[in-house]
Amino acid sequence: MRSELIFQTPYWFLIFCVLAGVGYAWLLYQPQPSWGKKLNYLLAAARGIVVAIICFLLLSPLVRRTQTSVDKAKIVFAIDNSESVGKYGQAAMAQVNAAVRDLNDAGFEVGVETLEGTETNTDSLAFNQNKTNLAGLLQNVRSNFEGRNVTDVVLLSDGIVNQGVSPAYNRYPFRVNALAVGDSVPKLDIRVKDVVSNRIAYLGNEFPIRAEIAANGLQGKSTTVTLKQNGRVIQSQPVIIDRRDFFKAFDFKTTSEQKGVQHYTIELGAVSGETSGRNNRKDVYIDIIDGRQKILLMALAPHPDIKSIRSVIEANDNYELDINILSIANNPPASTKPYDLVILHQIPNVLGLGNAQVRKFLDAKMPLFFILGNQSAVPLASSLNRSLFINAAANNQVDKVTARFNPAFQQLNLDAESLKLLERLPPLSVPFGEYNISAGTETILYQKVGTLNTSKPLLVLNTNGDQKTAVLAGEGIWQWRQEEFAQTSKQEVVDNLFQKLIQLLSVKEDRRKFRVYPISNEFEAGEQVSFQTEIYNDIYEPIFGQEVKLELVDEKGKSKQFTYTHTKETPRFNVSGLGDGVYRYAASTTLKGNQERVSGQFVIRNADLELSNTTADFGMLRDLAGRSGGTFLVPASLQQFIQKLKTDRPADRLDSSEEMVELIYLKWLFFLIVLLLGAEWGLRKYHGGY
Asked: Which residue ranges traverse the bilayer (predicted)?
């Protein structure tokens, strides 16, 4: 620590501080005292020093403190403890542990990181991770030792990456020295490399499942690939291995008459000579749903906006869209069809087509999305939508406005920064007049006239009450999508806005007072399954203290029961030790004497990514070491590398920190002044002074 005094005023101002102290002491102690001269000089000196110090502090001097510390060179061992490294890694750990001890004795700081995080006990390190993300491992080293003097990282790995990106193309602030282990000679093996399928399918519909099969060194042999469901063979196809490096995709098609998550298995028959049969099967889970959400788009006449809205809706497979153009068909749909959302384009209108149907939709409490246009009956639309009221001009005058996002709107998770694009898109045609919104209605977009920001709403949403409504006060969104594509080569911002709005309007509101659900639909094998619990009273305030019974049933019908108490401190209940497969759960509790019950399902996947490829990739490790300035190593050369590090020891780093502090904030000065004044006052009183 080094301190330096800095003046903010000329140095010679100190003379005035000394003169002030001397003058004050001379005036105070000039009369003949009742005590001796020596004591008088001592008291005068104390008072003079205090006054001089106080005057000096009034000049606001600064103290610059400089603190220097030594940051020793740090070596980090990054251990790929995945299953594919296995016995090769365990054999090399004795040399790694010896290297760690050797470096510690030489004065280095040494750290050890694994795929799971920081490791302190490497003697019993298990190589059992079922996936390898080397880029993530090196990024964790960078994050955990950010700002530290890390000069070298020794990465023990076989170079196999099955998650994340290749680490060879990232830049690191340290040298990566690759310690290569494993077998780079391809093994005789056949495996299910990957399975490609849809995550969801619809009840009764045919859907595809593609199996990608790869083999090494088994040319001339054959087997079969089979699609199974719950042990039942659905279809089989022959696999003839006609070359050394074999790869082929096999397509299956199947249907399901059962709702919920269905478990399918792609399985290969054993081939003589293959190294392992563990990678001869893969599981795939497909959620079979009964029907889609039904949306009706009812329009007065053909319009480019209709095609744009159709494109937005049909991008989501969960929607089933009906389109009815009244001026062509003049046949409104039956109001009894249970639509989840009705989009009304220029309805109600001045021609009267479909106006009566709107009232039926309102009576049925269907969610409605009104889109106004030049044929809209604005007064009637204002009275029916109950959200946005427009007092339009008598001559049906229109205005050209662009859109401005309301950042205060929070119901949808929208990116305010990206929505600034809307201000650069073509204007919409809206009715000219006075705009007002009802209580409970939120504005999503405001109108912008030229460069003038107005408070007039352009797009509003009302989700209060028993019917959800939204109103877009203009037409021309087809131009928005075209212009966005012209500017960005994408159609994301506009589509995302309306997709989320349509999703919010069409989703059925969950009014249950008892809810239990897993925090995810899918978990990995070995991971805890967490159930979120929510219990409400009649006015939907959360309540706690209820006993909840939870039952889990696996695919074989085996059941497990759990009981827990729902508390504010622990709203989640965790279950561990579950194997892979589809699980169905049922939870129950008692509210006001009545039993409430919920049910659902979730999936536990056993990815077995490590089995998809067991051939070490030393080429990637060489590339990684070369790009970072490091060295490619094998276990036999590790000790030689450590000796080189000790001989050509990286320089320790000096870290300096500097701060400026006003002298008046130093506590010891305060206590010095108090001590001097206290001593002076005490001596004066003791000797009879005032």
From this structure: 12-29, 41-63, 663-683
> How far apart are alpha carbons 339 and 439 in whole angstroms?
26
Please give the sequence-ordered ranges of beta strands (E in DSSP) within 241-280, or none if there are none. 245-254, 260-268
CA dist list (Å): 304 to 310, 323, 570: 10, 14, 52
* Tokens 């759990």 belong to residue: 562
Higher pLDDT, 308 or 320: 308
pLDDT at site 473:
92
Place of tokens 């830049």: 171
| AA identity, residue 428 | L
**237 Cβ neighbours under 8 A, 6+ residues apart:** 224, 225, 226, 250, 252
Phi-psi region of 306 (alpha: psi -120 to 50; beta: other; left: phi over 0): alpha
Concatenated DSSP letters for 36-51? -HHHHHHHHHHHHHHH
Q: What tens digit of pLDDT does each residue of 575-603 get? A: 988 888 899 999 999 988 889 999 999 99
- The C-alpha atoms of residue 95 and residue 637 are separated, in whole angstroms, by 10
Give the global pTM: 0.56
Instruction: Report the percentage of the chain scoring pLDDT > 90.
Output: 31
Cα–Cα distance between 602 and 308 in angstroms, integer?
36
Q: Which tokens belong to 382?
A: 């204002």
Q: What is the DSSP letter of 105?
A: H
Residue 675 has which token pair? 């001590």
Taken in order 474, 477, 483, 484, the sign of the CA dihedral is: positive
CB 599 within 8 A of CB 584: yes
Q: What is the pLDDT of residues 612-621, one digit of tens each?
A: 777 888 999 9
